[in-house]
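Translate structure to sequence.
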């Protein structure tokens, strides 16, 4: 069996790459490292040629986003006959035994297709993700985001999904359910893949002893309106592909309310143009995603009750505006806030 493969998507990440790649080269478990460059115009390519000539490089002439920057590495891992492949952000730094801990878990849990690690912010004072979750409002969220108790989630456990910043995938699972959805470009493609894995009866686990330090949003902050556009485009697609029919009466009305709230909030921030772009992009892609939905749902291997059991039946912790709106509505209805 070929050694694990780690895939690092890169777009103009010259400042972050060295620390990220050095942490991968220092792993206690050796990996085949691949950098997929998304048409960088900074010094990334020169840096790779000069300092990391032993790392495999796949070059794109344009920016194909996170999904398009990871999938070529996934395909290469399949070609090499690797059992496991890990996406790893170019602004992340792993502790030395990060990969070994994740591989050990997958080796001993054949029912698990994805394993998440503890992702800590680069300031080492806040959590970034301890597993991704999906709510009955159609909104995903990273568990623990911005919390300061770094030891709060320190038990191995099953979770809904894994962060694309750093995680480990079983290659045989990817061959079964498919790779990242490149129509997402960036944002929530990791949750989409985790949702598809759950529907196909692959478990997702969280291993807190595997730790990565991550500088969040370094790529998205380089592009004005990027987060707004991608959020408004991808959230409807995530729901349309994956939520079972029996859950739609619960999830869809809540999602419409949340989506409208996000849309008007974007308009108030002066980002109406980007919200409209995202909304339009979702409408254009929706027919294609509904076709994909039929394939995903027809191949489902778990019950609706199981999917119900792994959803969070509440708003995401950081959805403060929606919580206030819900409280007002409950008071009008004479119900406890």
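Result:
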């Amino acid at each position: 069996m070929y050694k694990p493969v780690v895939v690092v998507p890169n777009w103009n990440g010259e400042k972050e790459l060295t620390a990220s790649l050095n942490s991968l080269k220092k792993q206690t478990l050796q990996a085949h490292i691949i950098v997929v460059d998304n048409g960088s115009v900074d010094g990334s390519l020169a840096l790779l040629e000069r300092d990391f000539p032993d790392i495999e490089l796949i070059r794109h002439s344009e920016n194909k986003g996170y999904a398009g920057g990871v999938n070529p590495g996934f395909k290469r891992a399949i070609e090499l006959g690797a059992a496991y492949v890990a996406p790893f952000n170019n602004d992340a730094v792993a502790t030395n035994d990060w990969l070994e801990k994740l591989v050990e878990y997958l080796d001993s849990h054949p029912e698990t297709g994805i394993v998440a690690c503890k992702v800590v912010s680069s300031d080492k004072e806040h959590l970034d993700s301890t597993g991704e979750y999906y709510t009955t409002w159609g909104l995903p969220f990273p568990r623990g985001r911005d919390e300061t108790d770094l030891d709060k989630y320190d038990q191995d456990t099953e979770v809904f999904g894994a962060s694309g910043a750093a995680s480990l995938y079983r290659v045989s699972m990817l061959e079964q359910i498919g790779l990242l959805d490149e129509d997402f470009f960036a944002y929530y493609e990791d949750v989409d893949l985790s949702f598809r894995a759950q529907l196909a009866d692959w478990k997702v686990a969280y291993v807190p002893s595997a730790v990565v330090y991550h500088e969040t949003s370094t790529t998205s902050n380089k592009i004005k309106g990027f987060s707004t556009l991608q959020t408004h485009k991808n959230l409807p697609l995530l729901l349309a592909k994956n939520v079972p029919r029996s859950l739609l009466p619960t999830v869809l009305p809540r999602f419409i309310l949340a989506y409208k709230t996000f849309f008007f909030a974007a308009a108030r921030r002066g980002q109406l143009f980007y919200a409209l772009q995202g909304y339009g992009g979702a409408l254009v892609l929706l027919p294609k995603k509904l076709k994909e939905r039929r394939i995903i749902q027809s191949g489902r291997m778990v019950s609706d009750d199981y999917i119900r059991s792994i959803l969070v039946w509440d708003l995401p912790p950081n959805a403060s505006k929606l919580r206030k709106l819900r409280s007002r509505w409950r008071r009008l209805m004479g119900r406890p806030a």
